[in-house]
Specification:
This protein is an alpha/beta fold. About 40% of the residues lie in helices and about 25% in strands.
Length: about 325
């Protein structure tokens, strides 16, 4: 059984195939192009780029002799009232077109659900969906810094209840703003991590937390001050990433105190940064997706369609 997943986020055009027999995945993805010095795209430009890129991203995923059993597609950022972003319309339109031609069922979900399912697949913890106990998941990216209580659900596969979030900047926004400030190309995550790895400084920044939620805008200001004072760029990069680590750590402490020592799954592009993981790995029952499954991808929505179609993973 072959399941196609499509995700057209604000950063990446993604498509993936899940093979339920071998429990393996194949995926293609392509970043959206952002001009040098800018920190994002207008939705109209993101839609245009997805329209151009998605056919090439899907091309070659389905091999000769394979037929698609169902299609999964992310149609919104999160499963909450009013969650909407035009770029997801591209994936939905293509999914519905393939469906109408081949009489194939389409299952719609959110970008966030896709991230959580892809992380569970990557860290081999899809078994968390088979029990009655909840678990904690983080979705940390350019658009979200969310700590979530996840429960398995018959209709939606999983439900996500927000425990805490960011009260201002999202972690991915902070990474990209600091990266562009230091002359890096957007999106800046990989380059900022590489730059930070050159630092020998030791930082122990304190997180600003209010009722479990973090405030990150002050970190951007501190980094700008450091740059003005002549700090090495690698030290500024490390300070920014260690500040994100401190915020995620305190948010995890808050969640585990409130709900108990549950497994914690970390997803989203920011959490692919290994410099952020160390303290979290040592302190909690934590699980991390590999970078290919932590960054924006369509693997989770492909798996979503398989689960909705009745597959047992």
């Amino acid at each position: 059984m072959i399941y196609l997943g499509i995700d057209t986020s604000n950063y990446t055009t993604s498509a993936a195939v899940y093979d339920s027999e071998s429990r393996s995945v194949r995926q293609n993805k392509k970043l959206l192009n952002v001009k040098a010095g800018e920190v994002g795209l207008r939705q109209s430009e993101a839609v245009f780029q997805h329209v151009k890129q998605l056919p090439d991203v899907i091309d070659g995923l389905i091999q000769i002799g394979e037929s698609i059993s169902a299609i999964g597609v992310s149609t919104r950022p999160r499963n909450i009232e009013g969650s909407y972003m035009p770029c997801f319309m591209v994936g939905e339109t293509v999914a519905r077109s393939i469906s109408s031609v081949g009489n194939i069922p389409v299952y719609k979900t959110s970008h966030q659900v896709g991230h959580v399912l892809a992380a569970l697949y990557s860290c081999q913890r899809l078994d968390l969906l088979s029990g009655n106990e909840p678990f904690i998941a983080f979705h940390v990216s350019g658009g979200t810094t969310d700590c979530l209580l996840i429960r398995a659900d018959k209709e939606e596969v999983i439900t996500a209840t927000e425990i805490s979030s960011s009260l201002d900047l999202k972690a991915g926004q902070l990474v990209d703003r600091v990266g562009v400030m230091l002359g890096l190309d957007f999106p800046c995550g990989k380059e900022l991590e590489k730059l930070a790895s050159e630092s020998i400084a030791r930082f122990k920044p304190k997180a600003t937390i209010r009722n479990g939620s973090c405030c990150l805008s002050g970190i951007e200001n501190q980094c700008r001050d450091m740059l003005g004072k002549g700090y090495n760029k690698c030290d500024i990069a490390l300070f920014a990433l260690k500040s994100v680590e401190a915020a995620i750590y305190e948010m995890t402490v808050y969640a585990t105190k409130k709900f108990g020592s549950l497994p914690v799954v970390y997803a989203g592009g920011v959490m692919s940064d290994k410099l952020i993981r160390g303290r979290l790995e040592r302190s909690f029952d934590s699980y991390f997706a590999e970078p290919a499954f932590s960054q924006d991808n369509a693997v989770g929505v492909a798996i979503f369609s398989a689960l909705k179609d009745g597959c047992r993973l």
